[in-house]
Design a protein that fits this description.
Number of helices: 11
CATH class: Mainly Alpha
Bound molecules: fe (ii) ion
Protein name: Phosphodiesterase
Number of domains: 1
Organism: Marinobacterium aestuarii
CATH topology: Hypothetical protein af1432
Strand content: under 5%
CATH architecture: Orthogonal Bundle
CATH superfamily: Hypothetical protein af1432
Order of helices and strands: HHHHHHHHHHH
Length: 196
């Protein structure tokens, strides 16, 4: 049972997520898009690229923690980290395949990993993302990189991270959450039926 939302179930979590998307108009981390638009853009790019459901849904939900964090949404002048990735993973754990939960839980660490392992990755970050990187601990140390590389879902986590960077375009139109809802429900059902 989810401690924060005890009435959540595999039957109603997709409707709950839809409600979160419908009601969140918060700006995304100082960007010119809302949190909802940001995640819908990532999911749309993944779908256009023919990526698997896990990547599409991982991108769609990676920042859901901003919508449910008891610590509130990130602001550009924050001086501390609100750990939205943990809030998001807590919401989805138990309803979604581990790979999706891992994409949510580790998408912040993935930025720190890529900044440490790819010399040009830092240049891809927006100003707000550079600011949050500092609050999140900066690029990983060599020991942290070695540990992160052992994650079983590393490749999918990194794919979602690239989509996170890409989904910050004010001019990009996307379908709404309902377009993706059947895919989201399929993954919930797969987890329920097969423990996937
Ligand atoms: Fe994001």
């Amino acid at each position: 049972m989810n401690q924060q939302y005890p009435s959540l179930s595999a039957q109603n979590i997709v409707a709950f997520l839809q409600t979160l998307f419908d009601n969140c108009n918060d700006a995304y981390l100082g960007e010119a898009v809302t949190v909802s638009q940001h995640m819908l853009q990532g999911a749309t790019l993944a779908q256009r690229g023919g990526m698997p459901d896990e990547v599409i849904v991982g991108a769609l939900l990676h920042d859901i923690g901003h919508m449910v964090s008891p610590l509130g949404t990130f602001a550009i002048d924050d001086t501390w980290d609100r750990h939205h990735e943990n809030s998001g993973a807590r919401l989805l754990a138990g309803y979604f395949p581990q790979v999706v939960v891992d994409c949510v839980r580790h998408h912040v660490a993935a930025k720190r990993f890529l900044c440490a392992t790819q010399p040009d990755y830092f240049d891809r970050l927006s100003q707000a993302s550079v600011h949050s990187l500092q609050l999140q601990g900066g690029p990983m140390t060599a020991d942290e990189v070695a540990e992160f590389e052992r994650l079983p879902n590393l490749e999918t986590i990194l794919q979602v991270r690239y989509l996170d960077e890409a989904g910050k375009c004010p001019a990009m139109n996307t379908p709404g959450f309902s377009h993706f809802a059947p895919q989201v429900q399929r993954l919930v059902d797969a987890h329920l039926q097969a423990g996937y």
